[in-house]
Design a protein that fits this description.
Dna Ligase, domain 1, 6 helices, globular, alpha+beta, two-stranded antiparallel ribbon, 2 domains, about 160 residues, Arc Repressor Mutant, subunit A, DNA-binding, homodimer, three-stranded mixed sheet
Chain lengths: ~160, ~160
DNA sequence: TATTTGTTCGCACGAATTGCTAATTAGAAA
DNA sequence: TTTCTAATTAGCAATTCGTGCGAACAAATA
């Protein structure tokens, strides 16, 4: 995580200013391991800086992504989530509660796609889907209802 | 791809009927390798069946997902895309034009995430990002404009 | 034929995110 | 330190992608 000074420098080198709003959002991102959504961050930010606007949160997140200081995670489920972890890592998603966790996976760089010979690949992302332990426990025979929505679709609609 | 008869059977076994709308959408899905969005399919369907509603397209797609005959792809970029390919495969995305292509990748099942020991993993998805050959060609020094949106964000907003 | 069950369709609604712009501010320059 | 101005914020309108709902239809059943 960038120090306040480095963050300021980063902004400056991008022709931008380090405002209190930006500083706060950056800090909140790094305090939160849960891959928060913009709305979530807005709620947290509002607590510490009443009056901050949701628009500013969205804007700041976009900028950070643009400056390479933040990664967007889009695994379905409605809102985009953000990950300040810039290191080499991947994600596991609980199909039940939707939590996303960072994981390390070895051997990813060795994967080769066949059928994309004409692509110049720049990045590879791996997403594991499963059920976390706490959801596993509370997983009664509710699974029965055959006409239930698929987890993916549930994620889409549940808010 | 299911034959018309098998498709009807599938629907029947789910307590559903194979209507002309459903038949058409299923067919269009399998004629299209581009992982279309609901809107795209709606456009194509409208051409052959004027009056079909967008609502029906969404509904039909959800049903197919639910019945396991269709896969949702959510790789950011705004709208959900659909893939009728049920086989074991993964995807490459062109960060420039947004096209998605199916690819085969060996060794995926051997990947093990560390940091998710308490998860029961059920699926693994790999997404490669890169630039396709046609975009590579038309990729002039336009890359210069440092303040340009990141590809991911562009995908989000461009429609 | 009457009834039940499943479908389609259109419209209203909702969530997530962006567009626009007037008012404000950070920070470089004087 | 004060000045100056490009950058930024706030906030509301507008958009995009979907979903909920109810009425009109259609098809299978009794």
């Amino acid at each position: 995580m960038l120090s306040p000074t480095d963050l300021a420098a980063k902004y400056r080198s991008n022709g931008r200013k380090l405002t209190p709003q930006r500083k706060l959002i950056f800090q909140l991102l790094h305090e939160n391991e849960m891959h928060p959504t913009a709305e979530l961050l807005f709620a947290e930010a509002s607590a510490q800086m009443p009056g901050i606007s949701l628009r500013t949160v969205y804007q700041t997140l976009s900028e950070l992504v643009e400056m390479g200081e933040l990664q967007m995670i889009d695994i379905g489920g409605g809102a985009t989530r953000f990950d300040p972890n810039l290191g080499d890592h991947h994600h596991v998603v609980c199909v039940d509660c939707g939590q996303i966790r960072d994981v390390h996976v070895s051997g990813v760089s060795a994967l080769r796609p066949s059928g994309a010979e004409d692509f110049v690949i720049s990045e590879v992302g791996v997403v594991f889907q499963g059920v976390c332990s706490s959801c596993e426990k509370s997983r009664v025979k509710t699974v029965k209802s055959s006409r239930a929505k698929s987890p993916a679709l549930q994620a889409k609609s549940s808010k």
